[in-house]
Write the C-alpha coordinates for this entry.
Amino acid sequence: MPDPDKARAFEAMDRLLVTGATGFLGGAIAAQLLQEGRIEETLLLVRAATPAEGLQRIAERLRLFGVAEDIIATLSERNVLLGDLANFPAADPRLQQVTAVINCAAVASFGDHPRIWSTNVDHTLAFARQASVWPGLRRFLHVGTAMSCGMQAPSPVPEDYDAGDKAEHVVSYTESKAAVEARMRSELPDLPLVVARPSIVVGHTRLGCKPSPSIFWVFRMGLAMRMFLCAPEDRIDVIPVDYCASALLALARKPVLKYDRYHIAAGEAGSCNFREIESGIAEALGVPPMDDYRQVGMEEISALQPRFQELFGRCIPWMMLRAIELYGGFASLDMIFANSHLLAEGIAPPPRFTDYIANCALTAAGGTIAEQMMVDFK
Ligand SMILES: NC(=O)c1ccc[n+]([C@@H]2O[C@H](COP(=O)([O-])OP(=O)(O)OC[C@H]3O[C@@H](n4cnc5c(N)ncnc54)[C@H](OP(=O)(O)O)[C@@H]3O)[C@@H](O)[C@H]2O)c1
Protein backbone atom coordinates (compact mmCIF):
# COMPACT_ATOMS: atom_id res chain seq x y z
CA MET A 1 0.00 0.00 0.00
CA PRO A 2 1.16 3.61 -0.47
CA ASP A 3 3.15 4.95 2.46
CA PRO A 4 0.82 7.33 4.45
CA ASP A 5 3.77 9.07 6.16
CA LYS A 6 5.26 10.01 2.82
CA ALA A 7 1.83 11.13 1.66
CA ARG A 8 1.47 13.46 4.66
CA ALA A 9 4.94 14.86 4.08
CA PHE A 10 3.79 16.12 0.70
CA GLU A 11 0.40 17.28 1.90
CA ALA A 12 0.88 20.79 0.62
CA MET A 13 2.03 19.62 -2.78
CA ASP A 14 0.70 21.05 -5.97
CA ARG A 15 -1.54 19.60 -8.61
CA LEU A 16 0.68 18.13 -11.27
CA LEU A 17 0.02 17.39 -14.93
CA VAL A 18 2.42 14.81 -16.35
CA THR A 19 2.56 14.08 -20.08
CA GLY A 20 4.14 10.98 -21.59
CA ALA A 21 3.24 8.63 -18.71
CA THR A 22 2.89 5.66 -21.06
CA GLY A 23 6.58 6.15 -21.92
CA PHE A 24 9.88 5.43 -20.17
CA LEU A 25 10.50 8.68 -18.24
CA GLY A 26 6.87 9.67 -17.69
CA GLY A 27 6.15 6.10 -16.55
CA ALA A 28 8.95 6.31 -13.97
CA ILE A 29 7.46 9.57 -12.68
CA ALA A 30 3.97 8.06 -12.43
CA ALA A 31 5.42 5.00 -10.64
CA GLN A 32 7.16 7.22 -8.10
CA LEU A 33 4.05 9.33 -7.50
CA LEU A 34 1.97 6.21 -6.92
CA GLN A 35 4.54 4.69 -4.60
CA GLU A 36 4.57 7.92 -2.57
CA GLY A 37 0.77 7.82 -2.37
CA ARG A 38 0.64 11.17 -4.16
CA ILE A 39 -1.25 10.24 -7.29
CA GLU A 40 -4.51 11.85 -6.20
CA GLU A 41 -3.33 15.34 -7.13
CA THR A 42 -1.94 14.22 -10.48
CA LEU A 43 -3.37 14.32 -13.98
CA LEU A 44 -1.80 12.12 -16.64
CA LEU A 45 -2.26 13.05 -20.30
CA VAL A 46 -2.78 9.84 -22.25
CA ARG A 47 -3.77 8.93 -25.78
CA ALA A 48 -6.67 6.50 -25.78
CA ALA A 49 -10.26 6.14 -27.00
CA THR A 50 -11.76 6.05 -23.49
CA PRO A 51 -10.61 6.86 -19.93
CA ALA A 52 -10.70 3.13 -19.13
CA GLU A 53 -8.37 2.38 -22.03
CA GLY A 54 -6.13 5.27 -20.94
CA LEU A 55 -5.96 3.84 -17.44
CA GLN A 56 -5.15 0.43 -18.88
CA ARG A 57 -2.29 1.85 -20.99
CA ILE A 58 -0.73 3.59 -17.98
CA ALA A 59 -1.16 0.47 -15.82
CA GLU A 60 0.74 -1.59 -18.41
CA ARG A 61 3.70 0.77 -18.15
CA LEU A 62 3.52 0.80 -14.33
CA ARG A 63 3.74 -3.02 -14.25
CA LEU A 64 7.05 -2.78 -16.12
CA PHE A 65 8.22 -0.61 -13.20
CA GLY A 66 7.23 -3.37 -10.78
CA VAL A 67 4.42 -1.31 -9.19
CA ALA A 68 2.23 -3.68 -7.13
CA GLU A 69 -1.36 -4.25 -8.26
CA ASP A 70 -2.86 -2.80 -5.05
CA ILE A 71 -0.90 0.41 -5.65
CA ILE A 72 -1.87 0.54 -9.34
CA ALA A 73 -5.48 0.21 -8.14
CA THR A 74 -5.17 3.60 -6.42
CA LEU A 75 -4.98 5.15 -9.88
CA SER A 76 -8.41 6.02 -11.22
CA GLU A 77 -10.06 7.62 -14.21
CA ARG A 78 -9.96 10.89 -12.25
CA ASN A 79 -6.22 10.90 -12.97
CA VAL A 80 -6.68 10.46 -16.70
CA LEU A 81 -6.72 13.42 -19.07
CA LEU A 82 -7.58 11.97 -22.44
CA GLY A 83 -5.83 13.67 -25.28
CA ASP A 84 -2.86 14.35 -27.45
CA LEU A 85 -0.45 17.27 -27.69
CA ALA A 86 -1.89 17.75 -31.18
CA ASN A 87 -5.44 17.78 -29.90
CA PHE A 88 -5.14 18.97 -26.34
CA PRO A 89 -8.34 18.92 -24.22
CA ALA A 90 -7.96 22.56 -23.20
CA ALA A 91 -11.58 22.89 -22.04
CA ASP A 92 -11.19 20.32 -19.23
CA PRO A 93 -12.00 22.28 -16.04
CA ARG A 94 -9.39 20.34 -14.01
CA LEU A 95 -6.66 22.21 -15.89
CA GLN A 96 -7.60 25.40 -14.07
CA GLN A 97 -6.18 23.88 -10.87
CA VAL A 98 -2.90 22.66 -12.38
CA THR A 99 0.08 24.30 -10.72
CA ALA A 100 2.97 22.38 -12.30
CA VAL A 101 3.49 20.52 -15.57
CA ILE A 102 6.17 17.93 -16.27
CA ASN A 103 6.19 17.63 -20.03
CA CYS A 104 7.76 14.31 -21.03
CA ALA A 105 5.67 13.67 -24.15
CA ALA A 106 7.71 13.67 -27.34
CA VAL A 107 8.72 11.54 -30.27
CA ALA A 108 12.05 10.39 -28.82
CA SER A 109 13.40 8.54 -31.84
CA PHE A 110 16.70 8.60 -33.69
CA GLY A 111 14.84 7.26 -36.73
CA ASP A 112 13.13 9.27 -39.45
CA HIS A 113 9.78 9.35 -37.68
CA PRO A 114 7.36 11.47 -39.74
CA ARG A 115 5.92 13.18 -36.62
CA ILE A 116 9.19 14.28 -34.97
CA TRP A 117 8.93 17.92 -35.96
CA SER A 118 5.16 18.35 -35.68
CA THR A 119 5.03 16.70 -32.23
CA ASN A 120 8.23 17.97 -30.68
CA VAL A 121 7.95 21.52 -31.98
CA ASP A 122 4.51 22.56 -33.32
CA HIS A 123 2.25 20.59 -30.98
CA THR A 124 4.50 21.02 -27.92
CA LEU A 125 4.53 24.76 -28.52
CA ALA A 126 0.73 24.84 -28.91
CA PHE A 127 0.34 22.88 -25.66
CA ALA A 128 2.72 25.21 -23.80
CA ARG A 129 0.83 28.21 -25.17
CA GLN A 130 -2.42 26.83 -23.72
CA ALA A 131 -0.73 26.10 -20.37
CA SER A 132 0.63 29.63 -20.19
CA VAL A 133 -2.87 30.99 -19.48
CA TRP A 134 -3.84 28.54 -16.70
CA PRO A 135 -4.40 30.74 -13.65
CA GLY A 136 -2.56 28.60 -11.09
CA LEU A 137 0.43 27.50 -13.17
CA ARG A 138 3.68 28.29 -11.41
CA ARG A 139 6.04 25.93 -13.25
CA PHE A 140 6.19 24.37 -16.69
CA LEU A 141 9.01 21.85 -16.48
CA HIS A 142 9.82 20.91 -20.03
CA VAL A 143 11.92 17.79 -20.53
CA GLY A 144 14.49 18.53 -23.20
CA THR A 145 17.55 16.51 -24.03
CA ALA A 146 21.16 17.33 -23.19
CA MET A 147 22.13 16.34 -26.75
CA SER A 148 20.21 19.34 -28.08
CA CYS A 149 23.51 21.23 -27.56
CA GLY A 150 24.69 19.88 -30.94
CA MET A 151 27.83 17.99 -31.86
CA GLN A 152 30.44 20.74 -31.45
CA ALA A 153 29.66 21.73 -27.86
CA PRO A 154 32.55 21.87 -25.39
CA SER A 155 32.69 19.00 -22.89
CA PRO A 156 31.61 19.11 -20.12
CA VAL A 157 28.73 21.02 -21.66
CA PRO A 158 27.69 23.87 -19.33
CA GLU A 159 23.98 24.06 -18.45
CA ASP A 160 23.66 27.50 -20.03
CA TYR A 161 25.54 26.59 -23.24
CA ASP A 162 23.58 27.66 -26.28
CA ALA A 163 24.95 27.09 -29.78
CA GLY A 164 21.85 28.75 -31.26
CA ASP A 165 21.30 28.25 -34.97
CA LYS A 166 24.89 27.16 -35.50
CA ALA A 167 24.50 23.84 -33.67
CA GLU A 168 25.09 20.83 -35.91
CA HIS A 169 22.68 17.98 -35.36
CA VAL A 170 23.03 14.44 -36.64
CA VAL A 171 19.37 13.56 -36.13
CA SER A 172 16.23 15.67 -36.44
CA TYR A 173 15.12 14.53 -32.96
CA THR A 174 17.83 16.58 -31.17
CA GLU A 175 17.35 19.48 -33.58
CA SER A 176 13.60 19.51 -32.86
CA LYS A 177 14.25 19.55 -29.09
CA ALA A 178 16.63 22.52 -29.46
CA ALA A 179 14.14 24.35 -31.68
CA VAL A 180 11.18 24.03 -29.32
CA GLU A 181 13.20 25.25 -26.34
CA ALA A 182 14.26 28.36 -28.26
CA ARG A 183 10.72 29.02 -29.48
CA MET A 184 9.14 28.57 -26.04
CA ARG A 185 11.60 31.08 -24.63
CA SER A 186 11.07 33.65 -27.34
CA GLU A 187 7.35 33.22 -28.06
CA LEU A 188 5.92 32.50 -24.59
CA PRO A 189 7.40 35.05 -22.20
CA ASP A 190 4.59 34.46 -19.65
CA LEU A 191 5.19 30.71 -19.42
CA PRO A 192 6.93 29.84 -16.10
CA LEU A 193 9.36 27.71 -18.10
CA VAL A 194 12.14 25.61 -16.63
CA VAL A 195 13.97 23.20 -18.93
CA ALA A 196 15.43 19.94 -17.57
CA ARG A 197 17.68 18.16 -20.04
CA PRO A 198 18.48 14.53 -19.19
CA SER A 199 21.69 13.10 -20.62
CA ILE A 200 21.39 9.42 -21.64
CA VAL A 201 18.80 7.53 -19.64
CA VAL A 202 19.65 3.84 -19.36
CA GLY A 203 17.93 1.26 -17.14
CA HIS A 204 16.74 1.46 -13.56
CA THR A 205 18.94 1.06 -10.49
CA ARG A 206 16.97 -1.94 -9.12
CA LEU A 207 15.02 -3.22 -12.12
CA GLY A 208 17.77 -2.88 -14.72
CA CYS A 209 16.30 -2.98 -18.23
CA LYS A 210 12.90 -4.42 -17.26
CA PRO A 211 11.09 -1.07 -17.65
CA SER A 212 12.83 -0.52 -21.01
CA PRO A 213 15.98 -1.77 -22.80
CA SER A 214 16.38 1.65 -24.43
CA ILE A 215 20.03 2.35 -25.44
CA PHE A 216 21.47 -0.53 -23.40
CA TRP A 217 21.63 -2.55 -26.64
CA VAL A 218 24.39 -0.16 -27.81
CA PHE A 219 26.65 -1.34 -24.98
CA ARG A 220 25.68 -4.96 -25.62
CA MET A 221 26.86 -4.51 -29.21
CA GLY A 222 30.38 -3.58 -28.09
CA LEU A 223 30.61 -6.76 -26.09
CA ALA A 224 29.09 -8.93 -28.83
CA MET A 225 31.50 -7.69 -31.53
CA ARG A 226 34.43 -7.07 -29.16
CA MET A 227 34.98 -3.91 -31.17
CA PHE A 228 33.14 -0.61 -31.49
CA LEU A 229 33.49 3.02 -32.53
CA CYS A 230 34.38 4.23 -29.01
CA ALA A 231 37.89 4.50 -27.60
CA PRO A 232 38.14 2.60 -24.29
CA GLU A 233 38.69 5.90 -22.48
CA ASP A 234 35.72 7.73 -24.04
CA ARG A 235 33.36 8.77 -21.27
CA ILE A 236 29.60 8.46 -21.58
CA ASP A 237 27.12 10.39 -19.46
CA VAL A 238 24.47 7.89 -18.34
CA ILE A 239 21.80 8.18 -15.63
CA PRO A 240 19.18 5.67 -14.44
CA VAL A 241 15.51 6.37 -15.11
CA ASP A 242 14.48 6.29 -11.42
CA TYR A 243 17.09 8.94 -10.60
CA CYS A 244 15.88 11.04 -13.53
CA ALA A 245 12.25 10.77 -12.35
CA SER A 246 13.16 11.79 -8.78
CA ALA A 247 15.18 14.76 -10.02
CA LEU A 248 12.33 15.91 -12.29
CA LEU A 249 9.84 15.66 -9.42
CA ALA A 250 12.18 17.59 -7.15
CA LEU A 251 12.51 20.34 -9.78
CA ALA A 252 8.73 20.44 -10.27
CA ARG A 253 8.06 20.66 -6.53
CA LYS A 254 10.66 23.13 -5.29
CA PRO A 255 8.89 26.43 -4.60
CA VAL A 256 11.85 28.46 -5.88
CA LEU A 257 14.58 27.40 -8.28
CA LYS A 258 17.91 29.09 -8.77
CA TYR A 259 18.10 28.52 -12.54
CA ASP A 260 15.84 28.04 -15.54
CA ARG A 261 17.81 25.21 -17.16
CA TYR A 262 19.27 22.05 -15.71
CA HIS A 263 21.11 19.01 -16.95
CA ILE A 264 19.99 15.84 -15.26
CA ALA A 265 23.32 14.21 -15.80
CA ALA A 266 26.16 12.22 -14.31
CA GLY A 267 28.63 15.06 -14.94
CA GLU A 268 32.40 14.77 -14.64
CA ALA A 269 32.35 12.93 -11.33
CA GLY A 270 29.70 10.37 -12.26
CA SER A 271 30.40 9.46 -15.89
CA CYS A 272 32.03 6.11 -16.72
CA ASN A 273 34.27 5.32 -19.63
CA PHE A 274 33.56 2.71 -22.28
CA ARG A 275 36.11 0.27 -20.82
CA GLU A 276 34.44 0.37 -17.38
CA ILE A 277 31.01 -0.08 -18.93
CA GLU A 278 31.98 -3.04 -21.12
CA SER A 279 33.95 -4.69 -18.30
CA GLY A 280 30.95 -4.30 -15.97
CA ILE A 281 28.67 -6.04 -18.46
CA ALA A 282 31.19 -8.82 -19.16
CA GLU A 283 31.65 -9.45 -15.44
CA ALA A 284 27.90 -9.57 -14.77
CA LEU A 285 27.37 -12.06 -17.59
CA GLY A 286 30.44 -14.14 -16.74
CA VAL A 287 31.94 -13.78 -20.22
CA PRO A 288 35.64 -13.18 -20.90
CA PRO A 289 36.81 -9.64 -20.03
CA MET A 290 37.28 -7.19 -22.86
CA ASP A 291 41.09 -7.37 -23.01
CA ASP A 292 40.88 -7.92 -26.77
CA TYR A 293 38.54 -4.94 -27.38
CA ARG A 294 39.42 -2.78 -30.39
CA GLN A 295 38.27 0.69 -31.41
CA VAL A 296 37.44 0.49 -35.12
CA GLY A 297 35.80 2.52 -37.89
CA MET A 298 32.54 1.84 -39.72
CA GLU A 299 34.31 -0.08 -42.57
CA GLU A 300 35.51 -2.78 -40.21
CA ILE A 301 32.09 -3.06 -38.59
CA SER A 302 30.47 -3.18 -42.00
CA ALA A 303 32.73 -6.10 -42.94
CA LEU A 304 31.19 -8.02 -40.06
CA GLN A 305 27.71 -7.94 -41.65
CA PRO A 306 27.63 -11.65 -42.54
CA ARG A 307 27.82 -12.36 -38.79
CA PHE A 308 25.20 -9.82 -37.69
CA GLN A 309 22.39 -12.41 -37.26
CA GLU A 310 24.63 -14.55 -35.09
CA LEU A 311 25.78 -11.55 -33.01
CA PHE A 312 22.59 -9.48 -32.77
CA GLY A 313 19.76 -11.93 -33.47
CA ARG A 314 17.36 -11.84 -36.42
CA CYS A 315 17.89 -8.46 -38.04
CA ILE A 316 18.12 -6.35 -41.16
CA PRO A 317 21.89 -5.72 -41.50
CA TRP A 318 21.68 -2.23 -43.07
CA MET A 319 19.43 -1.10 -40.20
CA MET A 320 21.94 -2.39 -37.67
CA LEU A 321 24.73 -0.53 -39.46
CA ARG A 322 22.70 2.69 -39.43
CA ALA A 323 21.98 2.27 -35.69
CA ILE A 324 25.67 1.65 -34.96
CA GLU A 325 26.64 4.71 -36.95
CA LEU A 326 24.16 6.97 -35.13
CA TYR A 327 24.34 5.71 -31.55
CA GLY A 328 28.01 4.69 -31.74
CA GLY A 329 28.74 8.12 -33.18
CA PHE A 330 27.06 9.76 -30.18
CA ALA A 331 28.74 7.42 -27.70
CA SER A 332 32.18 8.18 -29.12
CA LEU A 333 31.77 11.97 -28.77
CA ASP A 334 33.28 11.73 -25.27
CA MET A 335 30.69 14.34 -24.29
CA ILE A 336 29.58 14.79 -20.73
CA PHE A 337 27.21 17.32 -19.21
CA ALA A 338 27.80 19.59 -16.23
CA ASN A 339 25.27 19.01 -13.45
CA SER A 340 26.25 21.87 -11.15
CA HIS A 341 22.82 23.54 -11.36
CA LEU A 342 21.13 20.36 -10.20
CA LEU A 343 23.58 19.84 -7.34
CA ALA A 344 23.13 23.48 -6.32
CA GLU A 345 19.44 22.69 -5.70
CA GLY A 346 20.48 20.10 -3.12
CA ILE A 347 19.63 17.19 -5.42
CA ALA A 348 22.02 14.28 -4.83
CA PRO A 349 24.30 13.21 -7.71
CA PRO A 350 23.25 10.06 -9.58
CA PRO A 351 24.80 6.64 -9.02
CA ARG A 352 27.46 5.72 -11.55
CA PHE A 353 26.33 3.48 -14.41
CA THR A 354 28.74 0.76 -13.25
CA ASP A 355 26.99 0.71 -9.83
CA TYR A 356 23.84 -0.78 -11.37
CA ILE A 357 25.08 -2.11 -14.71
CA ALA A 358 24.91 -5.74 -13.55
CA ASN A 359 21.12 -5.39 -13.13
CA CYS A 360 20.91 -4.01 -16.66
CA ALA A 361 23.08 -6.76 -18.15
CA LEU A 362 21.15 -9.58 -16.47
CA THR A 363 17.67 -8.25 -17.27
CA ALA A 364 18.56 -7.46 -20.90
CA ALA A 365 20.06 -10.88 -21.57
CA GLY A 366 16.67 -12.47 -22.38
CA GLY A 367 16.10 -10.45 -25.57
CA THR A 368 18.17 -10.05 -28.71
CA ILE A 369 20.14 -6.88 -29.41
CA ALA A 370 18.18 -6.39 -32.64
CA GLU A 371 14.80 -6.61 -30.85
CA GLN A 372 15.89 -4.17 -28.14
CA MET A 373 17.25 -1.71 -30.69
CA MET A 374 13.77 -1.30 -32.18
CA VAL A 375 12.61 0.43 -28.96
CA ASP A 376 14.70 3.42 -30.04
CA PHE A 377 13.61 3.33 -33.70
CA LYS A 378 9.84 3.30 -33.24
N1 LIG B 1 15.18 8.23 -22.80
C1 LIG B 1 16.26 9.02 -22.84
O1 LIG B 1 17.43 8.55 -22.86
C2 LIG B 1 16.09 10.51 -22.86
C3 LIG B 1 17.24 11.29 -22.75
C4 LIG B 1 17.11 12.66 -22.78
C5 LIG B 1 15.88 13.23 -22.92
N2 LIG B 1 14.76 12.46 -23.04
C6 LIG B 1 13.46 13.13 -23.20
O2 LIG B 1 12.55 12.60 -22.26
C7 LIG B 1 11.24 12.64 -22.77
C8 LIG B 1 10.62 11.27 -22.62
O3 LIG B 1 11.39 10.32 -23.34
P1 LIG B 1 11.11 8.77 -23.19
O4 LIG B 1 12.40 8.08 -23.37
O5 LIG B 1 10.27 8.53 -22.00
O6 LIG B 1 10.23 8.53 -24.50
P2 LIG B 1 9.17 7.39 -24.79
O7 LIG B 1 9.37 6.20 -23.93
O8 LIG B 1 9.17 7.18 -26.28
O9 LIG B 1 7.78 8.05 -24.38
C9 LIG B 1 7.23 9.09 -25.13
C10 LIG B 1 5.89 9.46 -24.52
O10 LIG B 1 5.38 10.59 -25.22
C11 LIG B 1 4.04 10.32 -25.59
N3 LIG B 1 3.68 11.05 -26.80
C12 LIG B 1 4.30 11.02 -28.00
N4 LIG B 1 3.65 11.82 -28.86
C13 LIG B 1 2.62 12.36 -28.19
C14 LIG B 1 1.58 13.26 -28.54
N5 LIG B 1 1.48 13.79 -29.77
N6 LIG B 1 0.65 13.58 -27.60
C15 LIG B 1 0.73 13.07 -26.35
N7 LIG B 1 1.69 12.20 -25.96
C16 LIG B 1 2.61 11.87 -26.87
C17 LIG B 1 4.00 8.82 -25.81
O11 LIG B 1 2.65 8.40 -25.77
P3 LIG B 1 2.14 7.07 -26.54
O12 LIG B 1 2.46 5.93 -25.61
O13 LIG B 1 0.69 7.30 -26.69
O14 LIG B 1 2.88 6.98 -27.83
C18 LIG B 1 4.84 8.36 -24.61
O15 LIG B 1 4.05 8.36 -23.45
C19 LIG B 1 11.35 13.12 -24.21
O16 LIG B 1 11.04 14.48 -24.25
C20 LIG B 1 12.81 12.92 -24.56
O17 LIG B 1 13.25 13.87 -25.49
C21 LIG B 1 14.84 11.10 -23.02
